[in-house]
DNA sequence: TAAAGGCGTTAACAAAAGATAATTAATAAA
DNA sequence: TTTATTAATTATCTTTTGTTAACGCCTTTA
């Protein structure tokens, strides 16, 4: 018998969820594992699994006209990865989702999840929680672009995402901040010389 | 008797909503009207009404350390305005929400809405719809900051928001794009000379 | 009607960022 | 361990943006 209370603590998922509902969810979910550099979701994919990252780190990136990779988002443990193009936009994925570290996940098919939610109404609270969390994160990011300078944006990013600089390459962080790697390097130097 | 089908068409609100559920919602909602320059929500406010803009235009702005107004978002008719700081962050509003035009709204207290949703489960679909739409919009905005240059961002903005340049001052648009009014003026000139 | 204020444009200069390439440092592969 | 690759830093130059201020235009107010 799994200790669900412990599970909740460890995986921080079902915040507003009863143990019973969490059990329903976990019963339907499968375990998965991705090696470093392995893709969870490919560009053009119609895979509609929703992943919950137990451990590891996922990079969402796009390849532009010039063939360059542009990283949009870094998603660490205890967060949800999904093919948002499919779920929100009803189109194939414009992005790649790649494991940057060995990544352990729960995953569940979105249609199955929909069905599960309709049969267990209390799960709706959890869906709401996940959606609100995504919304909050996204809105805070918009705010950081409107209200902050690139330097301030960098400082806030590393503050909100402790240890990230030791886990991923700077060029990915630069992309996420909407600047070039060269510019990020200069910003870091500027900050260093201030202190 | 109100023709709800017509209402749905006009107000585009209850996309996934049955007429009955829409009726429940509208019955609980009050009508409101704001004159130009009037505030829907003040900074520091704990007002937790959710507004649906029937007609008009609302500006969400912030006053920074230097006392300057910085516009974060422009919200036109058929969209939802809410005190997100209160609802998502459990804190008083950091922003002002000001009518830029005479603005007609439906509004409903968020707690009342919560209660309504719990008693009419089908309304949950509508809440999901609103949340997903906000998320989509916010994510697209983040993408525009990461993937596009200021000039491209401006072009996409006016494309996605037809007629906006005739409705609001350029300085508000500049803020929303994360640039200065002077820079926006230069971008417009650059675009003009290209054609 | 005149005065005042606000806004968009333009100018001038400083600061920052982009682009490209060279160098150094770190990492991965042989 | 050595070699090959890849990433980060630095340098140089160009372009863009920020800042401040001046100017003309328009709207509002007296």
From TrEMBL, chains A, B:
PROSITE patterns associated with the record: CNMP_BINDING_3
Can you give the residue ranges of the Cyclic nucleotide-binding domain? 13-117
What the entry lists under Pfam families is as follows:
cNMP_binding
Q: Which residues cross the membrane?
A: none
Q: Which InterPro entries match?
A: cNMP-bd_dom, cNMP-bd_dom_sf, RmlC-like_jellyroll
Q: What is this protein called?
A: cAMP-binding protein
Organism, scientific name: Cyclobacterium qasimii
Q: Give the lineage.
A: Bacteria, Pseudomonadati, Bacteroidota, Cytophagia, Cytophagales
